[in-house]
Write a structure and sequence with these properties.
By secondary structure, the protein is an all-alpha fold. It has one domain: MFS general substrate transporter like domains (Growth Hormone, Chain: A). Helix content is 76%, strand content 0%. It contains 18 helices and no strands. Helix 4 runs antiparallel to helix 6 and helix 7 packs antiparallel against helix 13. It is globular, with a radius of gyration of 21 Å. It starts with a helix and ends in a 17-residue tail after the last helix.
Amino acid sequence: MSSGTAAATAAARPGGRYRWRVCAMLLAATTINYIDRQVLGVLAPFLQDEIGWSEIQYGYIVMAFQGAYAIGLLCAGALIDRFGTRIGYALAISVWSLAAMGHALAASVAGFVVARFMLGLGEAGNFPAAIKTVAEWFPRRERAFAVGIFNAGSNIGAIVAPLMVPIVAAAWGWQAAFLCTGVLSAAWLVTWLVFYRTPDQHPKLSAAELAHIRSDPPEPAVKVPWLQLLRHRQAWAFVAAKFITDPVWWLFLFWLGKFLASEYELSLAKIGLPMIVVYLMADVGSIAGGWLAGRFMRLGWSANRARKSAMLVCALCVAPVILVTQVDNLWLAVGLIGLAMAGHQGWSANVLTLPSDMFPRQTVASVVGIGGFAGAFGGMGMSYFTGSQLQSTGSYATIFLIAGSAYLVALLCVHLLAPRLEPAPFDMPRPPSG
């Protein structure tokens, strides 16, 4: 074997597994993020009776979170790119944990609006920080799988919440359900600050694993002003995908409990199991969607073909949810919704990888923040539409028709804007003269 071939082989060999410990920390943070976020979704049918809000007022509460989440994403992405993932992530989880516990003080629609707004500001930092961390710690061929793993935390959190919330609320009241995540958040924060460093600065990372992490072709070392990112159609491809499909996830997250309770007359004690099944299916979809794209690449497919093929499979899994309002059996409805949520999470594992496919590491969090802003803004529109539709007709039929169609439309937009998923053109720094 020639020295060049040996060097290439050594660079390609993983050489260690520390990066997967980092991925586990991202999984834990995302799980906590979604436990905090989902508590209201589980309690919503029952708080609606106690607080006395209407369908439209509940839509306003959800919109407050989404509006703040959108604003926070714009700020969080740029701040994390500037100050780094270690400090940025720590600040984000501190803010959202305090806001989550602050829900216990709310006693009116206005109180919940304020609490949800502050929660949205803090939680906006999770995905820009996590995706930038993946871009720092994983080569391109492993990123979709790593994103799929940590993104599964959104489903784990959504499973833990319906398991935990009814028990806590029945024993100590609904306020206690909003308070109980503080210890988890504090433990994660301490662990992150003590153990996390970037790969170049981490004392426990082997030279072989660092070489594996850096095995992709060199990226341009550039600092790009936030607004200049929008000059590239690659950014708009990501923005379109998030704007069109994120509202569907918001719909599932905040209205699933209400849908099941109203359509199948489920009590607080009985609503947990169907929601757990749905989110378990979503967990499988999150990991499988990321694995599928990586599998296609290992077969020799280009990143463009692999990503879009995996996204198409996921989009087709969502489409049958259009029929969910036509079935009378609870578990058939759960199966259709679970398949759709699995499709969404597999879709997200690939969509969230697009910024690191097409942009330098230094700009990834900013691009993710812009796309997340678009997704949250679209989610606000979906929340208003859902509340108005239910208030006027009481029917979910049109709502699920939109949800089932969104992903194929989004995939078409991505393909038209980024037909080859080629990297956005940035100039490499010029070597010094002389």
